[in-house]
Amino acid sequence: MVKLKARINTFKSDDGSSYFTQCCLILGDVTVGDYDQLMLAGALDVAIKDLFNRAKINKPIQSTTSNLKEKIEEAEANTRNSYLPIGVESFDGDFAGFVRINNHESMAIKLWREENPSLLDISESNYIKFMHDLRETLAKQCKALGLNLDRDSA
User: Fold this and answer.
1) Which residues contact 114 (CB under 8 A, 6 or more apart)?
2) Is the alpha carbon torsion for 108, 113, 116, 118 positive or negative?
3) How far apart are CA 125 and CA 58, in angstroms?
4) pLDDT in the model for residue 84
5) HEC assignment per residue over 55-98
6) Residues 83 and 58: beta-carbon distance below 8 Å
7) Residue 6's beta-bridge partner residues?
8) Which of 12, 17, 58, 84 has the fewest CB atoms in 10 Å of its CB?
9) Within a 10 A sphere around the Cβ of 131, how many other Cβ atoms?
10) Does residue 151 have a pLDDT over 90?
11) Which residues pair with 11 in a beta bridge?
12) Rounded Cα–Cα distance for residues 13 and 108 (Å)
């Protein structure tokens, strides 16, 4: 299995009126997301929660190694198929989905600057747990700055 890590930093604006975050996912040797892009912390929180809702209905892409790129392009046409937070700057243009090839589940990643997808040995259940942990980290960082994501708006 691929090691899953996140790089996340949340901070207040200079005037203290807004909460921003920077985030990227480090999935083995693949970095997904642009850490240098600022996002509103509340927007990332909503995007992660939306990911959890989409994950309940999205199904793995049935594929073979020979038609993987074509199947990913079909799925990528609808951003709601992605297992990344959508609607936030850091992950704009990137795509992640789960594929099943010969009864083996993998995560397919298509970065905006890459032509071909990469396959990573990550299960959907491990990834969703990882994203729940990321959401908890975001909530803790916000709370340390005085923002309760479960009660306040960013």
Assistant:
1) none
2) negative
3) 13
4) 97
5) HHHCCCEEECCCCHHHHHHHHHCCHHHCCCCCCCHHHCCCEEEE
6) yes
7) 25
8) 17
9) 21
10) no
11) 20
12) 35
- What pLDDT is stored for residue 153 in this prediction? 52
In this model, does residue 42 exceed pLDDT 70? yes
For CA atoms 27, 66, 59, 1, give the dihedral sign.
Answer: negative
CB–CB of 100/63 below 8 Å?
Answer: yes
**Range of weakest confidence among 37-51, 73-87, 139-153:** 139-153
CA dist 56 and 51 (Å) reads 9
What is the token pair recorded at 122? 């990550």
Q: Which of 134, 131, 113 is nearest to 122 (CA)?
A: 131
Rounded Cα–Cα distance for residues 7 and 63 (Å): 31
- Sign (positive or negative) of CA dihedral 139, 137, 98, 66: positive
Which amino acid is residue 100, in one-letter code? R
**Amino acid found at 97:** G
Closest CA to 127 of 60, 71, 68: 60
